[in-house]
User: What shape does this take?
Amino acid sequence: MGFSAPTGELRHLLDVVLPAPACVFDPRFDLVAWNETFAAIWHPETLPPGRCNVMWMAFCEPARRAMWANWEERSHALLAEFRAAYGQHAGDDRFAEMIADLEARSSEFRSWWTTYEVRQSMTGNLKTRVPGAGVVNLEVIELRVCSHPSLHLSVHAPARPADHKKLAALAGSASRQPARLARAS
Assistant: This one.
């Protein structure tokens, strides 16, 4: 079951929100596009083939997981939304494969998956440890994209002026790249 790819306008929007990190993901939480600040913090292009996925980053990538100062709180919210998305796509073999891989690789995922918590939005505070910038407080704003109903836009807006400055410096030090699309898996 394939989901729609982001349009040029949506990729442009990822750049407009700079210096805030932002990404677009599909119902399985596969990352399909991101901006340069998101790339500078999370390096999604370095994820294993077929695992350019928010859940994979949160539960199976120790270095990325360690960057979340409030990992347990945020990962519970993330898992609850993932469960809600899974419920809406019963029979999707790629969902089932991802869940099996997450259960095999993460004891937290395996344990928490059995609690059946469901949530419709990951909106909330994310405290991220960014090398060279320290802790950056971000407000996660998740939006459904009306023109592409299968996609979600996630903007990680700086919570305070100091966080905005840190992100601006990070974006300024990155090579100016337009929003990127994930490689096909």
Q: What stands out?
A: The chain has one domain: 8-181.
